[in-house]
């Protein structure tokens, strides 16, 4: 059915930011419509239910900074069980190819690298994080691999000023039923038009005209939560054009982080909640969670260039089998089978996983977040200055954009986010 109607606020995108804004605004008597191109809500938060009771978080998985994460109280209010144990990475790594002594050496090298980054962040000119690796350090490749997981990109593509602005309390929890399931449950009451692609946004008139695949929506205000790659590639046409937003988005590209879930026929062969790096001497390697949450599976995680190459070649599962066979022995190969895999790099509604700032582009997060004419507002993880690349960062920016809308319509004072500011 084609739509042609007017609302107070149109929101482009039903990810964490969009549904946070919609939920906040709905309490103020405004008519709200969220326009979502997918056939579901959640954006880059998505949980698939697989065989043997496995909840596979295809997108975001960890409730980072759980003591300051807005989805923690939401999870509790919705009855989601939160698993508060320590994550598997770091010194809890299984030591098949990474003895405890070497783990300590790596942690020391990584800590020293972070100290150099913090010092470099005080310099006026931004640089690439790779510039601060210690020449010849044997752990440089693994440090770069960590960046590919955390940033979705290698250190040569990451801004020092940006990465050191990220705030993390090192408290990482999980929702047993899945983070994506949590986000979807949170947004279930929102007024969302699914399968509705936004084609253009004309903000030249008194009302904003939003042309969609299902008709034209008119609104007094609009919140855009599109991923940066879609803004940079102008998949939605703004009229008049917004060249500063396009430029800002281009400096905050989505990196690549992909996963494949593998079932294990005899899970008792593996240590409970263990962790393995495929290799410790190269950047292009996988990170493997063994029996996460006690389930009979292995979750393989890839980042950066390797993630993109494996997705394009449909080769994640085979790569995982090769690395795991080298680590655990040939008998394991016949006892592992792939269940499901992500493909965010080839998802036309995201084209990547989460944002990182290119060297020299750290200030573009605030530029992307700034409103236009007090009618166009912008949210999403890439517009967060401290919690970027996370679902709770996206959530917070949705509340910030909702506050801006309410202030523009003279409806309300600032909403309390409970977090640290976008």
Walk me through the structure.
Helix content is 28%, strand content 20%. The protein has helices at 16-25, 71-77, 100-120, 140-150, 160-163, 179-186, 228-232, 243-250, 304-312, 316-328, 364-369, 391-408, and strands at 3-12, 32-35, 47-49, 55-57, 62-63, 82-83, 173-175, 192-193, 198-202, 208-212, 215-224, 237-239, 257-264, 274-277, 287-290, 297-303, 336-341, 376-378. The chain has twelve helices and 18 strands. The chain has 422 residues and is an alpha/beta fold. Strand 3 and strand 4 (55-57) form a beta hairpin. The strands form four sheets. Strands 1, 2, 8, 9, 10, 11, 12 and 18 form an eight-stranded mixed sheet that branches. Strands 14-15-16-13-17 form a five-stranded antiparallel sheet. Strands 5-7-6 form a three-stranded antiparallel sheet.
Question: What are the salient characteristics of this protein?
Answer:
single chain; 422 residues; alpha/beta; 5-stranded antiparallel beta sheet; 12 helices; 18 strands; 28% helix
Low-confidence stretches: 416-422
Helix segment tally = 12
Q: Report the end-to-end length measured between terminal Cα atoms.
A: 37 Å
Strand content: 15-25%
Instruction: Characterize the biggest β-sheet.
Output: 8 strands, mixed
* Alpha-beta classification: alpha/beta
Instruction: Report the mean per-residue pLDDT as an integer.
Output: 93
Series of H and E elements: EHEEEEHEHHHEHEEEEHEHEEEEHHEHEH
How many individual β-strands? 18
Q: What radius of gyration results from the CA coordinates?
A: 22 Å
The helicity comes to 25-40%
- The coarse silhouette is globular
């Amino acid at each position: 059915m084609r739509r042609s109607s007017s609302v107070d606020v149109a929101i482009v995108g039903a990810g964490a930011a969009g549904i946070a804004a919609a939920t906040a605004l709905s309490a103020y008597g405004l008519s709200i419509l969220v326009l979502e191109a997918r056939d579901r809500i959640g954006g880059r938060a998505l949980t698939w239910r697989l065989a043997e009771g496995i909840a596979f978080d295809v997108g975001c998985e960890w409730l980072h900074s759980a003591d300051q994460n807005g989805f923690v109280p939401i999870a509790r209010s919705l009855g989601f069980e939160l698993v508060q144990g320590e994550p598997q990475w770091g010194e809890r790594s299984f030591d098949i190819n990474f003895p405890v002594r070497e783990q300590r050496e790596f942690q020391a090298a990584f800590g020293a690298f972070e100290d150099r980054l913090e010092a470099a962040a005080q310099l006026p000119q931004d640089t690439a994080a790779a510039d601060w690796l210690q020449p010849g350090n044997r752990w440089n490749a693994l440090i770069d691999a960590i960046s590919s997981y955390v940033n979705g990109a290698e250190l040569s593509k990451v801004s020092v000023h940006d990465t050191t602005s990220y705030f993390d309390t090192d408290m990482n929890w999980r929702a047993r039923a899945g983070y994506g399931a949590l986000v979807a449950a949170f947004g279930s009451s929102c007024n969302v038009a699914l399968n509705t692609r936004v084609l253009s946004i004309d903000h030249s008139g008194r009302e904003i005209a939003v042309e969609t695949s299902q008709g034209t929506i008119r609104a007094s205000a609009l919140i855009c939560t599109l991923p940066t790659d879609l803004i940079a590639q102008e998949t939605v046409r703004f009229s008049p054009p917004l060249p500063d937003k396009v430029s800002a988005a281009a400096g905050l590209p989505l990196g690549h982080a992909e996963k494949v879930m593998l079932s294990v026929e005899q899970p008792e062969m593996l240590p409970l909640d263990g962790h393995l790096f495929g290799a410790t001497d190269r950047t292009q390697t996988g990170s493997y969670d063994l029996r996460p949450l006690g389930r009979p599976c292995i979750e393989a995680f890839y980042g950066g260039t390797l993630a993109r190459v494996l997705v394009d070649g449909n080769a994640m599962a085979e790569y995982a089998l090769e690395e795991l066979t080298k680590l655990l022995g040939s008998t394991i190969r016949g006892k592992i089978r792939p269940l499901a895999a992500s493909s965010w790099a080839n998802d036309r509604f995201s084209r990547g996983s989460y944002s990182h700032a290119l060297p020299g582009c750290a200030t573009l997060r605030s530029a992307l977040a700034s409103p236009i004419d007090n009618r166009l507002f912008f949210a999403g993880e890439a517009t967060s200055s401290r919690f970027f690349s996370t679902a709770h960062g996206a959530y917070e920016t949705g509340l910030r954009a909702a506050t801006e809308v309410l202030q523009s319509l003279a409806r309300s004072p600032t909403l309390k986010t409970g977090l640290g500011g976008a």
